[in-house]
Amino acid sequence: MIISVWSPVKRSGKTLFLYSLVNAIYELANSEISVLSICLNSGGFGKLLSMFGVTSMQNNASEYISSLVEAKAKINLKDILPHVGGMYFSGTQNRSLTDKSYGDFIRVAGEEFDLVFIDTISGKRSGVVGEALAASDGVINIVEQDYDILNDFIIGKEIIYVINRYKGDVFPNKEDFEYIFKIKNIHALPECKMLLNMKNKGELDKYPWEDTEYNRTVNKIAGEILNSIGRHAAIKNMGKAKFNLNKLFGWRKICGTT
User: Fold this and answer.
1) For residues 141 and 6, is the Cβ–Cβ distance under 8 A?
2) Residue 75, by phi and psi: left (phi above 0), alpha (psi -120 to 50) or beta?
3) 167-181 burial string, b = 16+ CB within 10 Å, else e?
4) Rounded distance between C-alpha atoms, residue 83 and residue 129, angstroms
5) Which of 31, 80, 125, 144 has the highest CB neighbour count under 10 A?
6) To the nearest 10°, the Cα dihedral for 210, 214, 218, 223?
7) What is the pLDDT of residues 160-192, one digit of tens each?
8) Which domains can be identified in the chain, with CATH numbers?
9) CB of 39 within 8 A of CB of 56?
10) What is the pTM of this model?
11) What's the Rg (C-alpha) of the chain?
């Protein structure tokens, strides 16, 4: 299953959210799934991979992989990409490949990995981001409580909306989003000073184990996605899901999803 994480505006907290989400999913799945995180930001190296401690030197494989995809050669991405356990990583630093070919790479990745997350470029829908969105099975849309910037912010493939840095007394609140924009499955993600402090101190790797409202919300979203993976795999493989569905129901109970 391929999921793009997108936001209509920059500095929405999208990348930091995705870092927490990938960690939560991998932990809830007891490290039994393979997850690929792709960072599309080509300016510099890309914050998502840096948060995981992956260096640009390690990530040079992405250009080689993309050239093989373009040549329609058979490849095993897990043998090439940098990884920590079952968490794999790819970026687009110095990307010379065409947008369409990179879209093909994403589709190939979707066949090999249980779950592919794409950290897109906020506010953009064309070029390589457009290819990523087209290849995706679903989108997580990260929005903020600023009515002036909420014009035409819906992609059309949303499986989850996340209101980042949420404040219940600010318009539009969660209920306003549901009523005005006719959208569902919205999660209110509160601002977390601990998260920002640990990020600034270079201790981000310790944050997933903290008991905070932010982490509890992320864990709930992770549980929903794990359930979606099971449904997606069951449909795709005609009932032969990649995962133990009993475990999926167990995750649902743990995370409080319905």
Assistant:
1) yes
2) beta
3) eeeeebbeeebeeee
4) 23
5) 144
6) 80
7) 999 999 999 999 999 999 999 999 899 999 999
8) 2-255 (3.40.50.300)
9) no
10) 0.83
11) 18
